[in-house]
Amino acid sequence: MSATFPKVRRGQLGYDIEQVEDFLEDARRAYASDSPTALDSSQIRQASFALAKSGYSPAHVDAALERLEEAFANRERERGIASKGEAAFFEGIRTQAEETLARLKRVDGERFRRVGSLTKGYRVAEVDAFAARLADYLEDGPEITPREVRTVQFTAQRGGYDEDQVDLVLDSVVSLMLAVR
User: 142 exposed, middle or buried (CB, 10 Å; 0-12, 13-18, 19+)?
Assistant: First the structure.
């Protein structure tokens, strides 16, 4: 098997080589297909791989996945415009942005569902601060990149925000960003 990416040092953990290669082969086939496929930009963003000794460098694989996600998003935008027309496509994006913005503009401490007091979730204050930045961005505020949204990390807190719900909104923001590039 050829080395598509640099490997981590011997004995260190990296992404499982076979899983990465299989995923990339599926992505190549999906992208080469003329018909819409089961693989889309959001699935690329959510791809994860097991860790294995002497695997691929996570930083290199993650950077390649970002480029692949953007390529799929560009194609999805082109297909959406071709099938719906430009006005209808961007009206759908505007509707999605308005719904996301409404969530992001909720009152601090109430933007997302909270987990139980004995369960750890994302730290509320950190998520609220980042949500405010995203709301500013969606209202034509300061620039923020898809990479910043993809890679944001929050510390844990008992009784914090539900991680799945927060992650779903962050994915929606990245999709919006890529749809209007």
Answer: exposed
